[in-house]
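Usage example:
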Amino acid sequence: MRVALFLTCVNDTLYPDTGRAVVKLLTRLGVEVDFPMAQTCCGQAHYNTGYRHETEPMARHFSDVFGEYEAIVTPSGSCGAMVRELYPRLGERARAEGRGDGLATALAPVVPKTYELTEFLVDVLGVTDVGAYYPHKVTYHPTCHGLRGLGLGDRPRRLLQAVKGLELVELPGAEECCGFGGTFSLKNSDVSAAMGADKVRNAESTGADVLCAADNSCLMHIGGTMARLSTEMRPVHIAEILASTEEEPAA
Amino acid sequence: MSGTFVGMPAFPKAAHEAVNNPTLRGNLRHATHTIRAKREKAVAEVSDWAELREAGKRIKDHTLRHLDDYLVQLEESVTAAGGIVHWAADADEANRIVTELVKATGESEVVKVKSMATQEIGLNEALEEAGIHAYETDLAELIVQLGKDRPSHILVPAIHRNRGEIRDIFAKEMSEWGRPAPEGLTDTPAELAEAARLHLREKFLRAKVGVSGANFMVAETGTLVVVESEGNGRMCLTLPETLISVVGIEKIVPTWQDLEVFLQTLPRSSTAERMNPYTSTWTGTTDGDGPKTFHLVLLDNGRTDTLADEVGRQALRCIRCSACLNVCPVYERAGGHAYGSVYPGPIGAILSPQLRGTASEIDASLPYASSLCGACYEVCPVAIDIPEVLVHLRERVVQGGEVTREGNKVVLKPAKGHAAERAAMRAARWAFARPGAVRAGQRLASRTRRLHPRRLPLPGPGKAWSETRDLPPVPAEPFRDWWQRTQGGKGGAK
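Running the assembly step on the lines above writes:
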């Protein structure tokens, strides 16, 4: 199976390790991964900040770049939700504004074949034990758009539970937002920071070494807060845990 | 980038105070988490919750779609049952009508059932100006009124107060308004409730005019419904000779049967009760029973304008349960006052900028008072997609466009204070259409990475981030460079 890695602009720029982990993991599971070099950004930040019209050409570009692949896999719940949930809405709004079906038609092909990484593993490849080894105490934070937008459910937890050596501990208030929220973190930085600090305190109370999530943007906020609060924990993307093996363990 | 990108209008400023007030944070945390957990349990008991939610949504959508017809039907039914119907286009008109009606009775005081519509129009203040005292009889509204405070929650307006604060308010203020608090009042809930009961009793027995809102109005029969848990509503609705109800036009349901849905979803969503304790219904007037005169003031005040917006109109489905407030992580930390409206929380953030427009600083900031986590949508018993409307209203703020104000189509200009943000978004869109430009930017960031501060306060959005959070380190090379260099790791390099 040949799939396109939609890495996301944040991961491409700031978290290449997550990208390498996805490639390593999928390759190990027999998937042929391509990284279309023309990919840029899905437009989520624009859309959610109120720039829907600026988002449209970005969505069209996404569809041009990824339209031909069998499946599109992304290590981000929120960017995955952008394509799956909000691209159809972009098309509907254009139609409602009397601009015809053009946008909806252009975006339609990528919507159903875009998968967040854990969805792709569990639903498409049908695996929960990916042969990973990660000897650490881990707590999992379900990020909002993956949880409520994509309905990832217990997929990430099932994958983590099957990792050899990994001890998964419950995060109190797990389903509460960490406070990142894209431009919310800047426009309402006080509330965002308060939410982040509460999330970190809850994570700390578990005694875990690692806080795992499926979105690096949320982890950037949580990790930045952890560093400032001098916490012993560190944030790790789920792809890096699932890619880790006894032969090549992740740090 | 200048500070305007961060655009720090009213909500963030007000929230700043609340976030740094430990008593308030503690009160809100305790209260919202308690109600949140109870609601979850109460809702989980109902096996057909999803169907009830869908039914509630459909009933409301249908009614709003045919609101013109149902309003006329309601007026006919209420009139036929002996009530008198008044129409108020805005807050001023509604206040004027109610003031005149009270004056016509010759009375100088009224007792009130807790009502969001009368809060919205500032009725108590308008009556006071005309020399009429309005006494709130809901316990929490009483606390707010005695404390010369503002409500901070739709259902529990004194949620920001703890027991000790309430005791102090009662002990100090009750004597100003009527029967004083008992000597040696403590902060035990039973004693506080008893003090309120005694204080309110004399008001109930004396009042000749009652003022209420309504949770529902049944078009087919002209019946109004008030749902409450203290019995104060029942007192106000039955004892006075004259009853005046001020109700938003979106509160209609077509038939009694439709109530079946909402009388299941509302109590569980709001107070986590299986059945509402006091459900009062009345149809016009009845000889020898209850008020002799009944006036219904139907309030628009921005609702028709809201109805004209295809995305935003779903906010009119709201049944004021407050579940979205109780589950909202932003509300929990910012508190209700930061929303600058009687409608706080997620629903307030989409209602206020629609009912009032987005011209003011606070209203233009409300659509941003959310991380878009979606918890509000998940708990909403009429499935209002609050994040969708928030984003829609953000678009209205930054891009302007056509809206309906006071029944007229007007074209809004983009709001001021977003110029730098708009430029940044346009620049990013330009770059994202050009992978080469993205790559050049990434490389520049990588090559200068040792120069990037992680803790130093930066100006503008950098400061907003780095005051409380380290910035992430920039890697030596972006992923795309690694991919190209190694052919996705196949080239041997790691």
